[in-house]
């Protein structure tokens, strides 16, 4: 049985249709300059309104109820309205708070599932973490919209942290888990472990750099995450050569793997900027190129490819 048949197609299509319209509407109102900070908000909303609905059937055997999916759609639209307002009002906090509660509920469900199954397989843990890390991103997004700057970070870093946990904390561990199950190998297991460690380590490293302590933590943490991500990029490219897949699916896997490969090389050069400043792109170029490659090249293409792989999803 195709795992995609477990969902109600009408509800799924409604969510995806609303997501596409919402992202386009947000971009048209706020502007689409890739090097403007609003591009970060657009990429974040793409994850909320488009990538997360696409990934609904990829988290494992349990597909959430239609009621739960409707509630997540409502929360995403409330978040859309909150970010659309040019100046945050207290009513705008409600939308972000609802989104945070939805993500915390999903994180708690993932913890319960992990506790029940008691599996320590890296691929399984990666898939669970893809439901946990976004809750951290939602908390940082609430701080950003409330104009509260934790630890003295400026608003841009707070927003980038929220985006980091909605992308590197979502699509990367999710697809790492899928690769680990479809292609069990020493490489996939190591990649999963590095990603599980690397996502929170990068946030820790940025914090250390901000406080000017332990300057080696950020380069090390970025190197850990990049090493894991490059392993996933290789696995995605390997999937493109699987003989049992359709041509379009192979193309999507290839685009996903190559996009992640390039994006992670850019991340590595930026993470090593204290040692090799000439290699690092300026911050606006980083979120314009690195963020866009991760969102559309790796994330969107990868999710669309995995949704066509019923034979692997059943494993």
Please give a structural write-up.
The chain has 315 residues and is mainly alpha-helical. It has one domain (3-313). It contains twelve helices and no strands. Helix 3 (66-84) runs antiparallel to helix 4. It is globular. Mean pLDDT is 87; it is low at 1-7.
What are the key terms here?
315 residues; disordered N terminus; mainly alpha
What is the averaged pLDDT score?
Answer: 87
Q: What structural class do the secondary elements suggest?
A: mainly alpha
Number of spatially distinct domains: 1
Radius of gyration: 18 Å
Beta-strand fraction estimate: under 5%
**Helix percentage:** over 70%
Spans of at least 5 consecutive residues with low confidence: 1-7
How many helical elements? 12
Give the biggest beta sheet. none
The gross shape turns out to be globular
The string of secondary-structure elements, in order, is HHHHHHHHHHHH
Q: Could you give the distance between the termini? A: 12 Å
* Strand elements, count: 0
Q: How would you concisely characterize the structure shown here?
A:
The protein has twelve helices and no strands. The chain is mainly α.
Topology record:
Blueprint (H helix, E strand, L loop, with lengths): L8 H22 L7 H17 L11 H19 L5 H28 L4 H24 L9 H13 L3 H12 L3 H25 L6 H23 L7 H25 L11 H25 L2 H4 L2
Helix pairs in contact: 1-2, 1-3, 2-3, 2-6, 2-11, 3-4, 4-5, 5-6, 5-7, 5-8, 7-8, 7-9, 7-11, 8-9, 9-10, 10-11
